[in-house]
């Protein structure tokens, strides 16, 4: 059978692709990395050099000074602390709430389920920018402005819908018999979920986790409005004060940005495999 | 409950605010009925803003999906260094949008920007272009950044979709004598439909609501020449001569309705059913 499909150029291409694909890959990588290489290089030169004219690709003076500056800056340490705290707490809340919610919507055909799923999508449509005034008032009345709790709650709520949507598909894809068997073996509902269902839907949980973490890590508008106390700001908001009308420390801004990317990239690196398998596994039936 | 507290309640506040009258400092003076809506609808910049939004959303989503399709196809192939390339593609996603936007104001800069130097050296352009100052180039520059940051998510969703297609399907198509292009169009594309749907809808929502890129790259324009509905709304409340929370809220309500209409239209167009979600 296989001889039928062999086309004349196939042999040549097979040899060529060993070189063509990696080279193409290199080009793709360059396109995506280029802006961030500029960022890296700018973080390694004195701040004043970023605004030289004409600009140069490589720094005239190489220096790690900016990294020393920000790591020794107590403001930066506080921002990093806030970002880590808020991102981990929000992600934990989202996952803990979304798992049972997704399980429920996937298992029980309650009336209005399609409507519920669409409603979940609709909550994603509200731009944080348009809700931020209302959110601010709400937390002002609760005297929770400038508290980590307010930021954590807001971020959790914004990402909950999406997490439910993703995990719903994973739970829906699991065969019911599996669950019944587990229950016959004497597991309670919770036990069944923890010991049988959860391990099987791990890719879905991982996917939802990384999405939530990135979204919270990079959230800006709400944090900008809610956290006015300088040492309670998260990184995204805080590091902007390195470059304002008065201060032009581009090197520090970019050094801080590089540091802010690192946790996310590490997270990606650790779970990349699960991510590719997990993104749509639930939606392809 | 949580969703109620943080999305529904502020949404109600938003609607309430949209009918109120506010002073310059944001104090509520009383109800204003539907006047805010009328003010938004008769705002001189509304036409420009709507056209900008349309161009922005359609261009970014369409270009992103097309490029991501190609990229996902490429990344699904097995080659030396593939993991490194996949990593590189993820970086724009990992970086915060605000910072990426600021970075690009520097890259695009007329005097200090590296882009002009690069393009001049490569003889693609003969003299520097004022990417963010020249009105013809502002929108394309913003779209470029928008596409760059949207591709990682989209390409990964599509890549996952591709991985979910069993290999035998392709083999069967080839045995039936389909060429590569035909096999892709008739077999791969239909099977990718759920992944395409998810990425298109989410991209539409995110791009529509995208704030930092337009806000940051468009910093120098005091008017509304390159604003989309989302920055328009923000400017109404905080930056413009109008400084009107009520009007801004009304614009916010319009914004949600616009997205809703766009998404529903899209879902109609591709005949969404619940099983696809």
UniProtKB/TrEMBL annotation, chain A:
Q: Which CDD domains match?
A: TM_PBP2
A GO BP entry: transmembrane transport
The domain of life for this entry's organism is: Bacteria
Task: Give the membrane topology, semicolon-separated if more than one.
Answer: Multi-pass membrane protein
Q: Which PROSITE patterns match?
A: ABC_TM1
Domain named ABC transmembrane type-1: which ranges?
80-271
Keyword annotations for this protein, in alphabetical order, are: Cell membrane, Membrane, Transmembrane, Transmembrane helix, Transport
UniProt subcellular location = Cell membrane
Transmembrane stretches, start-end? 20-41, 84-104, 116-136, 156-175, 196-217, 253-271
> Which GO cellular component terms, listed alphabetically, does the Swiss-Prot or TrEMBL entry include?
plasma membrane
> What's the family?
Belongs to the binding-protein-dependent transport system permease family.
**The protein's name in its UniProt record:** Carbohydrate ABC transporter permease
Source organism of this protein record: Cryptosporangium phraense
Q: What is the lineage of its organism?
A: Bacteria, Bacillati, Actinomycetota, Actinomycetes, Cryptosporangiales
